[in-house]
Model the fold of this input.
Amino acid sequence: MLEGTQLTKDFRVRLGLFRGSATLRAVDDVSITIDAGETVALVGESGSGKSTLGRILLGLILQTSGAVHYRGTDFARLQGDAARQFRADVQAVFQDTSASLNPRRRVGESVIAPLLFNRRLSAAHARIESAQLLERVGLDPKIFASRFPHQLSGGQRQRVGLARALASQPRVIVADEPVSALDVSVRAQILKLMQDLQAQEKLAYLFITHDLGIARLIANRVMVMYLGAIVEEGNAADVFARPSHPYTLALTLSAPIPDPTRARPPRHLIGDIPSPLAPPPGCRFHPRCAFAQAICKTDAPPVREFENAHRSACHFAEQVRGG
Amino acid sequence: MSNLRTWLAFALILGFVLLAVFAQFIAPFDPFRGGADALLAPGAKNYLLGTDHLGRDILSELIFGARVSLAVGISAALSASILGIVVGSLAGFFGGWVDGALMRVSEFFQTLPRFVLALVIVAFFGGGVLKVIIVLAILSWPQIARLVRAQILSLRESTFVEAARLSGMNGIQIIAREILPNALAPVIVTGSLDIASAILLEASLSFFGLGDANLISWGGMLNVAQPYLRQAWWMAVFPGIAISLVVLAFNILGDALNDALNPRLQETA
Done:
């Protein structure tokens, strides 16, 4: 339904006085498909370009090359009603709940805005429907509609964020780390709410997260991003059962296991993510990889495909799969 | 405590405004008519605050002087704010060379020594209330322009503006509904502080004899008081108190507005 093809996004970065500027490739030749009603988890460390990819798909920033198609049409060519339909159909939920709501506006008004502008309802209709939306996300409109964002907890604000996204009657919601800033106890509630809403509305989610545990919980498909490129993708069941890229393997192994009797696994991920201004040659992951050989330093790995369109960009994917 | 302070400041400003508006009904004497009663001390012969060297009633002069001070202060701050908001918005929204050019111009005005420039302009083009207002506005707008520009630059990138785009608002709706309301609060605060500094600058100009000689102003009263400081302290002290009070009141008002316009400090509605 929402499809990005060979998307690339470059940013020009000023290095400082007299040092000119450099090009940062935040997203490098990424293709992504989100089908109706499914949840795609986009997993990666911070700085991997996953939020940039999300914002391209939302139409908030323009890609350097590649195209985004919505229901088969390049959305750059959408005009008039079709453009407005796209705007309403593809919505977002953000990580920083306090920054994503206008601090001077009562939260009820933030929910009303898409009803007025995307849906073009009358003010009276919009007010009634905004109250219903707040109720659907578990907030009593009598209490919360007239509050300011800072008077709400993070979890309550994220509920408002969901109500605002739902107000446009979307088909796809790009959720950029929607629960990362929340307390663990609140996370489960918001995730449950998102799953309920998905079932009721047949929504598709692009769920951007750095947390593999959450991806395992909610995703139908998983895409793993590293330094702007997709290194592994496949059905969630396949990816978690047989990680086929050393990076995914390292992430699954480094996820904490809530069992004090089990020893921590050995470190599989060495060092930090390199600067995207100077990505390593060959395979970008080789400086941190436990499987790296000489070829990894020189040749970019081809994409290998296994069962169920499970893909991995690694020279030694078979070895990784073998454990 | 701070609430009481705010109300006092507000009451004081309201009082001065009422004095200025209804000066001819409130003032006990005609402030322009002198007489034989020169340099009388406060309290003598119904002159509550005494008389000046020409026998004019100081209290009545103060009441009429409020007109000039407030008119100059408020209109100068208002014109500076409007100019600043326009220039700052243009710079912030368009960026690029527009931004660069406008900011260099504002820096030029900011590097000029305020008081010296005011002196020079008034000395060359003559006094007069209108000219003083123009000079004050020209000197005060860059600060507001830079403030507005900085606000818009940071707000333009904020997540809630992205959310507004996703809500289907167009550029103008986003500017009007999301950006400007958030950008204006500090401008209103700065504007009210500008009123205070404009009143002070007007008083200083008049003190140096560069005000409008045909109008009674507090600064002008200080000017004529100079030779009589040793005989008639009241000629200088009362206008001085008036200036201090009104400047203080506008500063407190600015502070209070800053708090009132911050939604984080508002009570639950």
Summary: Chain A touches chain B through 32 residues (CB under 8 Å). Chain A has two domains: 2-219, 246-323. Residues 44 and 64 of chain A are 21 Å apart (CA to CA). Chain A has a mean pLDDT of 90.
